[in-house]
Amino acid sequence: VLEDHAQHMLVAARRGLAAARVGVGWGALRDGEYGKATAAFGAAGAADPSNAEAWYLQGFTARAGSGTREIRLRQALEMFRKAAALEPGEAEYHRLVAATLLQLGQPAEALAEARKAVAAEPNEARHRNLLARAVAAAGQGREAIPEYQRAMRLDGDDIQPRDTADRTRRLLARYMEGL
User: Fold this and answer.
1) How many Cα atoms are found within 13 Å in the side-chain-facing hemisphere of 94?
2) What pTM value is reported for the model?
3) Which of 72, 97, 156, 167 could share a disulfide with 113, CB 3.0–4.6 Å?
4) How many helices and strands in the chain, by DSSP H and E?
5) Whether the Cβ atoms of residue 111 and residue 144 lie closer than 8 Å to each other
């Protein structure tokens, strides 16, 4: 019983340390100190590998880090995937995995992740817009338009889905003319 209690206390201490390091990282991000934020988020993930937020935030700092664009995106993807695996019901983590996969030119994988984001939060315009982008990138432009329309209905003030839907319609029209 004492061993179980000691183990529980150790886990609680690690989680508390990780949460404190996440807080330090947020402060560093707010102050524009990306190196310090990266170190704090990395330390949080090391202190508590089950802390999805730490992995998610490491992904953000990896995208802005050093190295080539592809290296940064691959590092971010790894972190976002860890966060999504730890909290599979968190739509934002799946959205970021999908967005990063699209940036890496992997639309089929992005489509699967975007669908997970929409399944978790079906009334979020950003997730619908990303799903539409993934559908279009996967070569299914005609199927993308209803998703863009759903995104616009959810957030009519967001210009991005409208612009992307218009661009997709123009591309489809050119494609249909060529048939």
Assistant:
1) 26
2) 0.76
3) 97
4) 9, 0
5) no
pLDDT at 172: 57
Q: Which two tokens stand for residue 70?
A: 């592809």
Amino acid at 151: A
> SS3 for 75?
helix
Round the average pLDDT of the chain to a whole number and report it: 81
Contact 64, 75 (CB under 8 A): no
Question: Which pairs count as long-range contacts for 152-158, CB under 8 Å and 24+ apart, including other chains?
Answer: 152/125, 154/123, 154/124, 154/125, 154/128, 155/125, 155/126, 158/125, 158/126, 158/129
Residue carrying structure tokens 């799946």? 94
- Dihedral angle of Cα 104, 107, 112, 116, to the nearest 10 degrees: 60
The amino acid at residue 124 is E
Look at residues 105, 61, 107, 141 and name the one whose alpha carbon lies nearest to residue 53.
61
- Angstrom distance (rounded) from CA 31 to CA 37: 9
Judged on CB neighbours under 10 Å (0-12, 13-18, 19+), 45 is buried
The better pLDDT of the pair 19, 13 is held by: 19
Whether pLDDT at 179 is above 50: no
Token readout for 21 is 């390091």
